[in-house]
Design brief:
It is an enzyme of class 3 (hydrolase). By secondary structure, the protein is an alpha/beta fold. It is 25% helix and 20% strand. Strand 6, helix 7 and strand 7 form a beta-alpha-beta unit.
Length: 249
């Protein structure tokens, strides 16, 4: 059980027409400790050095020292000396596979549960949920399990997109996919539209950013939640995975 969660979970790190983290920079720098040593986890993308340099370029002008966990011999040792951790976006399956392989899954979970500030964006926000089952990503690799960090007891869908009534595309919409998830799992899903984020401080969870979020729960219509909404009740969720809503033939 999370003892003292201190989380900033961004839907996205790059907003249309803005630089990396620019849309949330004030929130990010306010969340991170002053002059923090930030451990950055770049495993969601293949080029770890370039990715780390991008984060460094965005945050070091604000006095945040950024070091990629891949830059030392032991990623867990890099985490142990940090004042905060940031897991960036990319492919969630590649990211989770690397967290298992490096031993960081347990290390990050334990540190965050002890109060280390945890920031995620996109795939990094997916990692904060119990599983990857509501990721938008293609499984380009096969992790040992879909089980993620479980820093919150509900699912999150970053980059949530509303159905386009004018689209001629006949594939499933994001809403339809999340409804299918709820047919098999009794777990709320918080759809974070781009430009929005979730802040968790202990027992308090608050939505922030430029756009409302959308909450999906079993046997109920989706609920629109404006920025500023208190969603602390979600922290009391008791997730029920693999609990079909009805028997199948």
């Amino acid at each position: 059980m999370t003892v003292n969660p201190n989380l900033l979970l961004l839907s996205n790190s790059t907003q249309h027409g803005r630089g990396y983290l620019e849309h949330a920079l004030k929130t990010v720098t306010g969340f991170l400790p002053a002059n923090a040593r930030l451990a950055f986890v770049p495993y969601a993308l293949a080029d770890h050095d370039t990715y780390t340099a991008r984060v460094r370029g965005a945050l070091e002008p604000a006095g945040i020292s950024v070091r990629g966990v891949h830059e030392g011999a032991d990623p867990r040792a890099e985490l142990a000396t940090a004042d905060a951790v940031f897991i960036g976006g990319g492919n969630s399956f590649r990211l989770l596979s690397a967290l298992y392989r490096t031993g960081l899954l347990d290390a990050v979970r334990d540190a965050a549960r002890q109060g280390l500030p945890y920031m995620g964006a996109s795939a990094g926000t997916n990692m904060a949920a119990p599983t990857l089952r509501t990721s938008n990503d293609m499984p380009i690799v096969q992790p040992p399990s879909f089980d993620a960090l479980g820093l919150v007891p509900f699912q999150i869908n970053p980059h949530y997109q509303d159905p386009d009534p004018d689209s001629t595309h006949k594939g499933e919409t994001r809403e339809e996919r999340l409804r299918e998830f709820l047919e098999e799992n009794d777990v709320p899903v918080l759809g974070l539209r781009e430009g929005s984020w979730l802040r968790v401080e202990g027992a308090l969870a608050t939505l922030s950013g430029e756009r409302p979020a959308r909450l999906f729960t079993r046997d109920a219509p989706p609920q629109e939640l404006p920025a500023g909404s208190d969603v602390s009740a979600l922290l009391a969720t008791r997730p029920g995975f693999d609990t079909p809503a009805r028997a199948t033939a």
